[in-house]
Each structure stands twice: as structure tokens, then as C-alpha cells.
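User: Here's a chain of 134 residues. Predict its fold as C-alpha cells.
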Amino acid sequence: MKRILCLVICVFLLSGCNYETRSHEYVGESDNWAIDYKYKVKIKNDENHSEYEIKINYKGEIDKLANGEAIQVTYKIGEKSGSETFIVKDASEPLYIVSPGNLNASTLEGNEVGIITVSWGENYEEFEIKSSKE
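Assistant: Prediction complete.
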């Protein structure tokens, strides 16, 4: 009887671990910036847990982006949007926007086109990011 009870408990615990994971990567670039947006969602029953990371690389001439300069990055992809302001410490290092995770957030399907806007000093660039699988 104990073995049957243990087996039932093990099956119950293992079935609770089943979830679907979807990962998408979006990339894009402008004259001065390159963006790599990685999105992951774990779906289980009617709940999901999503997280993302946006890596922003300056690819322009390093001497044209001053240390201490403020950079405003705005992004919109699907229903996800946000904005972040950075202070440049080292123009050769990438900047990151990270979401540690949201419960029951909107999900992305991988075919959306996103819009990135980067403003710094008197400069402004807006460009698209698309699935890296296209």
C-alpha cells in the first residue's frame, strides 16, 4: 500500500512540473545601434511566466558618445512596451534592459515586428526589430 501511495505522489509531483517553454529572439540595427531582444515564456495550464533581456550595443564612433551622457531607449513589441534611461559609463560596453519575470504577462508569438527608439544628446534613431529566424 505504501508503494502505491508513493507512486501516486510521485506521478502527481512530476505531472506538476510539465510546462511548455517558448523562446523568441528579435534583432535589429540602425546606423549607431544594434539590438538583441530575447524573450522566454513558460506556459503551464492557464498561467504563464515571461522574462526578457534587451541587449543594446553602440556601434557608432566611440568618441561621439560621451561618458556620462544620458541615453533613452523606448521599445514596443506586441503588447510589451517600456522605456529605460541609461548613463554611459563605457561606450564600448553593451547596455541591458532585463525583466526578471512577470506572471500572466502577454506572450509573443515570434512574428511580431517591434519598434525601438534611441535618443541621446541631440540625436534620435527609430528602427524595427524582427524575429532572428526570418
